[in-house]
Known about the structure:
alpha/beta, Aldehyde Dehydrogenase, Chain A, domain 1, Aldehyde Dehydrogenase, Chain A, domain 2, 7-stranded mixed β-sheet, 14 strands, 42% helix
Amino acid sequence: MSRLFHPSPLVAALTGGLPTAALATLVASTNLHASAVERFVALWLAAADDEAVAAATADRSAGCVGIVAPGNLFIATWQLIVEVLALGGTARVRASGRDRAAAEVLVELLRAVDPTWAARVEVRHFAPGDSERWAEFVHGLQAVVAQGSDEAMLALRTRLSGLTPNLPLRLHGHRLSWAFARSSEDLIASADGLAHDMLLGDGRGCMTPRAVLVQGGIDDDARISAALRSALTDAARALPPGLVPTDLAASQRAWIEQQRFDAALAGRSFHAAMSPGFSLVVSGGDPPQQLDAGELGPGGRLLVVRPAPAKLAALEGLCAITSTVGLAPGSTHAMAAALRAMGVRRCCDVGQMQAPPWSETSDGQPLGQDISVSSSASRT
């Protein structure tokens, strides 16, 4: 096969689903439910496109790229590895302590399709504070790409800059995602897609929607709450929760009760539902003047519905830290363009928020950004 990775052979090999051993390993490593792991893989493969990947990586090439793997969702690690392979490079992966098996499972899947692809991925395990192993890790690398919390990315930048000051870095800190509906009717029409997007990753990752903002205010919050509660209940049966940290569950309960208290003081309507599979908050009232990230909840399997600010420009601060906005039916291309102009990395239909195309990075940037060079320039 070609040295350059193209996804169709892997897609064909996994048409019937993950091998039993691979599925069991990922469930144990990620703490996701097996149905969520299978659904993530199916979505990821469905988005694969040989021609789009080839076009996105044309005239770009990579050498040996270090990947500091995230620990939230295994698909994020897979996406980084195949990006490097599609650029003709080799990947040296430092596995996350919170998901130790993600990279190694993909290597075995690649080995079954084409051993030469698997041979271009090396996985290492070492503690975050092991300075000697970090020095060995970065030796000979041409670039490093990483995803994680803002604090983790700052610490990584400091560490790597001390080891190799001129090494190109592409560090992806925390961003959040949310959905937008032009009306309550549009929101209700997208309830099933929202429920899928929110529950699939157990509330983890930058592409999981934490909230839905409704243009023009919310005056039928009871009907919205009923529609979303029904959709979330159905989705939770198909996508049960994995292992939920007790501190997150406690912070969700505390946040919901604070929101209930604040709504009562302000005379706003408020609906909340809490179950083992999900939590839902629908906060009614008129459009606010401003909205900040703290009003979108603490994350996890919690969906928050709020009125959008009266003026779109009031979302500029939120957009600057946003990965993906899911647009409910009725949203326009102009709306998507305006959101991207304010810093949103990617806009897509509700129901597709967890399925970024293979022709770009997970947050909508060009493949190879900061980790590759022009092939024609490298030949001169």
